Amino acid sequence: MKNIYTYSIIFFIDYFGISCQRSSENSIKQIHYRGIIQEKFEDPSNHMLRTFKIKTEKSIFENTTQEIEGIWEYSNEGDSIIKEKGVLVYIVKKNNKERRFLYKY
After folding, report:
1. pTM value?
2. Neighbouring residues of 105: CB distance < 8 A, sequence distance ≥ 6
């Protein structure tokens, strides 16, 4: 009986984790923008998460980068950044080159 209880808890935790991941991925897929990285900083008001301040044609906003492997190290202020709707890929353009980065939850 103890094993059934333990397996039930493990199943619930695993299922909940997968469900949260899918929800997060679906939210990210809905985001789309084309902009310029205005600033790179570690945000003291958000647990020092690595953050880009991005300027688009219509707005300026902040985007954390911890789930986008390698983008922080590669990108600089002034680089173009693109996120198309429906995908988990971010594109950074610099010096006439384009590099893609995958969102990983």
Report:
1. 0.76
2. 21, 24, 25, 67
